[in-house]
Amino acid sequence: xxxxxxxxxxxxxxxxxxxxxxxxxxxxxxxxxxxxxxxxxxxxxxxxxxxxxxxxxxxxxxxxxxxxxxxxxxxxxxxxxxxxxxxxxxxxxxxxxxxxxxxxxxxxxxxxxxxxxxxxxxxxxxxxxxxxxxxxxxxxxxxxxxxxxx
Length: 150
Known about the structure:
By secondary structure, this protein is α/β, with parallel strands linked by helices. It contains six helices and five strands.
């Protein structure tokens, strides 16, 4: 099978879309949600957050390899920066990779992040630069401010 990498800024709707994809999938599917990987760090202060962020991305992608080779479609849900794409392709080797960037407008992401029941982000200020990291691959972008993430 292959890997679908859902990425985008915080509040883009990645988890909602991923869960919808899984619910309508007609093939065996595995879902790896990046936020759950943060809990693997029993003592998170052992290293800098950017290093852990990269480690999570590599780990998620590596976990997808045996699953995809076993015949599963694997949905990866995380804010993978676009500069990680080459690394992901090296990890996956021959396994097909589909990149989907969910990128509604900044105000939509801010509102969604503030309205979350879990992991609520009231002040989106520190995520504005992060939002800009998802520029440059329009052929992979879904940019729709009016659509519900479902």
